[in-house]
Amino acid sequence: MGTKDAPHPQIAKRDVSTPLTVEEALERQDGSLAEVAGFVTGQPVSDSEVLTGDFTNDYALALADERGEADPEKMLFVQIPSSQRPEAGLKTNPDIFGKKRVISGKLTGYFSRPGLKEVTSISPGEGDEEKEEEPSTDPGDYYSSAEGLSGGALKAALHDIIDDHRELSYGELWDAIAKTDEDPDQPGHVILLYTGRSQAQALHGGDVDDWNREHVWAKSHGDFGTARGPGTDLHHLRPADVTVNSSRGNLDFDNGGSPHDEADGNFSDEDSWEPRDEVKGDVARMLFYMAVRYEGDAGEVDLELNDRVNNGKAPNHGKLSVLLEWNESDPVDDRERRRNEIIYEEYQGNRNPFIDHPEWAEQIW
């Protein structure tokens, strides 16, 4: 008579319904979907800084396994989707600081740190009460305070809407531009602004034929350099060929000049630059944005458009009448819309109103 085999020892398996801890989520940055539980420890504003008070926006949360955790390295940075910011963001709801949250999303980098993006749900942890109100999903709400306005009143209202946003460091722009200006037909490449060339994202720097960071509103026009704010605002930073960028320099924009020998369709003379037709409207709408966003408050530079060239170091850019023409002749395209969404959702949390409503340029200027 045979004997029964001894039972095999059981291997412990994780209960798939149990949320990951923050420590586990930090280790599993593999792009998978997961549910993570942790305490809200602040609002990330860079890859190493987390605000614990005086919160500036509702775009991100930091989670940790310990309620009083102060080390950002032990925190998971969570990108909050626009639909959930009214109930899940710290600026609007500072009382959620220190509370437990269970969040579902994709385990992938955010702020160049281990993170959770593409969030589908944010709910209170055990012991926290559920909020009953539902956030608005009407995208028109973003501009609701500007409805029916024109002229200076419209400009002021739009400034108030787009004024508060996350300010990137100059170093963060490399990765950000690689995402905002990625070639949709050739992943891992960016499309250069003036030449239209598709170039490997890794080929950036200062060598000939590299791409670098072009300030469309020339940084000498207001002398703001590369400081956080106007010097790093993604809404006017674009990839450009190093030598072409150098040729453009700090020239104002206008029609005419001699053809550029490296950038087909671009023209220049001693006091102005004309970009290729495919991006004339892009250039105009970027400058419209800068003139509305930077109005001299909070110690920032006051940037204004005028109908001149040769503006030099004055905080002005031209030529306004030509920019308005370009806004009409080169309408907003899907690439611009995609770029605006990425900047809004993933980096700064504000939009370029003139991509969403190009008609507002004529109503202001």
Automatic annotation (TrEMBL):
MF-aspect GO terms: hydrolase activity; nuclease activity
Compositional bias per record (Acidic residues), positions renumbered to this chain: 126-136
Nucleus in keyword set: no
Location of the region described as Disordered in the Swiss-Prot/TrEMBL record: 117-146, 247-275
Protein name (Swiss-Prot/TrEMBL): Ribonuclease
Nuclease is among the record's keywords: yes
Keywords tagged on the record: Hydrolase, Nuclease
Boundaries of every Endonuclease YhcR N-terminal domain copy: 20-123
